[in-house]
Amino acid sequence: MSTKEIEILLEKYFEASTSVEEERILREFFQRENIPAHLKSLQPLFRTMKVESGIKSPVDHEILLIEKISPVKKNPFYSNRRLYWISSIAATILLVLSIIFLKERENKPLSNNYSPDEVQLALLQTTEALNFISLKLNKGTSELSQLEKIDYTRVALENIARLDQGMGQMQSGFSRVDEGLGQLNKLSKLNLITNQ
Questions:
Q1: DSSP string spanning the chain?
Q2: What value does the mean pLDDT take over residues 155-163?
Q3: pLDDT at 58
Q4: pLDDT in tens, 108-125
Q5: I want to staple 46 with a disulfide (CB 3.0 to 4.6 A). Which of 30, 34, 161, 164 is the partner?
Q6: Do residues 47 and 31 touch, judged by C-beta distance below 8 A?
Q7: CA distance 11 to 30
Q8: Largest CA distance in the chain
């Protein structure tokens, strides 16, 4: 094969558009000893390809890839069933512990833990806190009364919109009247012409 043909095949090879047969021709060409000087630098590439094509991997990578890609078939019935059992056991334990905890708190009277003065002080502080919250809440809601003005304005704007819509209907009525007058005018001109 001529050097020109090999150069064309090399261009196709580096553009990744060669066929298997063309690659075999290139490998055979670079296995020879008498290669042109400007192509000598590519000889190790094709010789390495020849050597590596004979090496077989002890692991079949295609099978490993298929095993990684293919979904694992699990029986969802058993995994869901196990999840339901575990969650129901956890819920039961939580329910029993909360019942025990509430029963213990119910059995302990507050008077045993706190003196009457402490109970009275806590009641006063709670009342003060609730009064403070109520005062702030009432103050905040008083500002909302300004929203009534917005509602009043909204009603006025709706009335203006209805008025505007009525004006539009009147305008279309006037345009019909104008058309009718135009027709009458044409008829009157026709009558003048015919009466002469």
A1: --HHHHHHHHHHHHTT---HHHHHHHHHHHHSS---GGGGGGHHHHHHHHHHHT---SS-HHHHHHHHHSPP---HHHHHHHHHHHHHHHHHHHHHHHHHHHHHHHHS-HHHHS-HHHHHHHHHHHHHHHHHHHHHHHHHHHGGGGHHHHHHHHHHHHHHHHHHHHHHHHHHHHHHHHHHHHHHHHHHHHHHHHH-
A2: 85
A3: 63
A4: 665 567 788 888 998 999
A5: 30
A6: yes
A7: 15
A8: 123
